[in-house]
Design brief:
Layout: E1 2-6, H1 18-31, E2 36-42, H2 45-50, E3 52-60, E4 68-75, E5 78-84, H3 86-89, H4 107-124, E6 134-138, H5 145-152, E7 159-164, E8 172-174, E9 194-195, E10 198-200, H6 201-208, E11 211-214, H7 217-223, H8 226-229, H9 233-239, E12 243-245, H10 272-283, E13 292-299, H11 305-317, E14 321-328, H12 330-342, E15 347-351, H13 355-364, E16 367-370, H14 380-386, E17 390-394, H15 397-402, H16 408-413, E18 419-421, H17 426-440, H18 443-455, H19 461-474
Parallel strand pairs: 1-2, 1-6, 2-5, 6-7, 7-11, 11-12, 13-14, 13-16, 14-15, 16-17, 17-18
Antiparallel strand pairs: 3-4, 4-5, 8-10, 9-10
The structure holds adenosine-5'-diphosphate and alpha-D-glucopyranose (GLC).
Length: 478
């Protein structure tokens, strides 16, 4: 089975969130299932610089305004097709935005180009004869691939899977872009890629792909409801059995407290104290009588961290502490900076993106907070489990699928790994933080939960097999 994964990010080369981790981890995880997965990514400068042994396998004279070539090579263990298109990707800044933070004006063309090349690889095979059985498109950036596959005639013998990591990013553009984007007018309707009078690349992927999946079973169910579906609920419900949820895993080698190069390593819970002490010193925290809570997150509406600001005084009053690493919304950044200034020694905030510090926080914390309004899967609560850092999470999406909440039943059975609270509700979060402080005051119970957490399977084994089965269903050739 040959699968071409199409994505705008891949860890550790280009990452803005969990998408990159999943795209980076899946090829190795699924190899054991007999799947040869290669990844098509944009030729950002950082990718072209990292690419080793790149050979040209495809060209096109004019793809949305300039000549392009496709290189096949390797970078940090990944087998990559790289779309080398200097007019689209050879720029300073992030994958989606300029250094000033504004989104690139031509994002629709940039990722349509990526999707077009995916369809061509499916249709023609590369010059070395590799041709995928299935194309897996990640998020809106790959969404047009199934449309182009149909347009080029590739969908007869090549299957397609649309993987939704986050429904909030629709990849919309005005309908006047139709011709420039090489889209067929017959697709511009409610059953196709039309979305509130515009074109949506995500809707295109959902409508045209043979199979659609998202990154947890609970989020898959939520997405078919108006409350979470953000306008896609009807389309997704219509997919019926062709829409499913497969839980993300994490790279258990990168996230391993016994070998993690960023921390004071530990194999058993007792050893975690050293990592905690190091974090307390690094963040300038004082002695306290409550749990040290950590957050590693993008600061966006989705993540519900405004609710944490509201619940923070209650946590601090109980002797709890907060150490947060994140960046994003300037208002949230400012609010957390202010909270740190108001409570020195008890609230520590680092604004920015820092991979190494994220490991030290997750290793050193007593609890990790993920109070999201919605969360397709979430990875940091999985890191928390692996490091014995008790997750306190909103009962939504993948958070609900990965944490065994402390209840009367799980307490008696001795299997709880964390705490759950209603999403989007500061009072519920406050109450959960109160419970956390109560449990923290009972070291026997707290340590049992930490040990349970460390034993919880968070790797890719089960989900890689589910992806392999999904690709098999999507493939057109037996
Ligand atoms: P999302 O993809 O919605 O941001 P996930 O929990 O799936 O949420 O993935 C987020 C990923 O990004 C995790 O690997 C997390 O550790 C990482 N991350 C988020 N913010 C930061 C940051 N400021 N510094 C370092 N890593 C971060
Ligand atoms: C998205 C989601 C997150 C998920 C990640 C990887 O960014 O917000 O919940 O874990 O994709 O699938």
């Amino acid at each position: 089975m040959k699968v071409l994964s199409v994505a705008s990010e891949i860890a550790p080369l280009v990452k803005t969130g969990g998408l990159a981790d999943v795209v980076g981890a899946l090829p190795a995880a699924i190899r054991a299932q007999g799947v040869d997965m290669r990844t098509l990514v944009p030729g950002y400068p950082v990718i072209l610089k990292a690419l080793k042994g790149g050979v040209q396998v495809m060209t096109e004279g004019n793809l949305f305004g300039g000549p392009v070539q496709v290189l096949l090579g390797e970078a940090v263990g990944h087998k990559l097709y790289v779309l080398d298109a200097s007019h689209l990707f050879w720029r300073d800044g992030g994958p989606y935005a300029a250094p000033d933070g504004y989104e690139w004006w031509d994002n629709a063309e940039r990722f349509a180009a990526l999707s077009w090349i995916a369809a061509r690889l499916a249709h023609e095979s590369d010059q070395k004869g590799w041709k995928p059985d299935v194309v897996q498109a990640h998020d809106w950036q790959g969404g047009f691939a199934p449309v182009y596959m149909q347009r080029l005639g590739a969908s007869h013998d090549t299957g397609s899977v649309m993987t939704i990591h986050n429904i909030a990013y629709t990849g919309s553009v005005g309908a006047d872009a139709m011709r420039d984007l090489r889209l067929p007018w017959e697709g511009y309707n409610a059953g196709g890629f039309e979305f509130y009078g515009r074109i949506s690349a995500l809707k295109a992927g959902i409508a045209y792909a043979d199979k659609v999946n998202t990154v947890s079973p609970t989020y898959a169910r939520e997405l078919t409801t108006p409350e979470f579906g953000m306008g896609f609920d009807g389309t997704l419900a219509h997919k019926g059995g062709d829409f499913s949820g497969i839980l993300n895993g994490i790279d258990v080698d990168v996230w391993n407290p016994a070998t993690d190069p960023h921390i004071e390593t530990y194999k058993v819970l007792r050893g975690k104290l050293k990592a905690r002490a190091a974090l307390v010193a690094e963040m300038g925290l004082a002695e306290a009588s409550g749990p040290l809570c950590v957050v590693v997150s993008r600061l966006t509406e989705q993540k519900g961290l405004d609710l944490l600001l509201a619940a923070l005084p209650g946590l601090l009053a109980r002797g709890g502490q907060l150490a947060l690493l994140g960046s994003g919304d300037p208002w949230l950044e400012g609010q957390f900076r202010e909270a740190a200034a108001r409570h020195p020694g008890h609230v520590a905030v680092r604004i920015g993106y820092d991979e190494a510090l994220s490991h030290r926080l997750i290793a050193g914390g007593d609890a990790i907070l993920v109070p999201s309004r919605f969360e397709p899967c979430g990875l940091t609560q999985l890191y928390g489990l692996r490091y014995g850092t008790v997750p306190v999470v909103a009962m939504t999406g993948g958070l609900a699928d990965t944490v065994i909440p402390l209840t009367v039943a799980t307490r008696i059975a001795g299997v709880a790994t964390g705490l759950l609270h209603a999403p989007g509700n500061a009072a519920a979060l406050s109450e959960a933080l109160g419970t956390l402080c109560d449990v923290w005051a009972n070291p026997g119970l707290y340590q049992q939960m930490q040990r349970n957490a460390m034993k919880h399977p968070v790797g890719w084994d089960v989900s890689a097999a589910e992806y392999a089965a999904l690709f098999k269903e999507a493939a057109k050739t037996p």
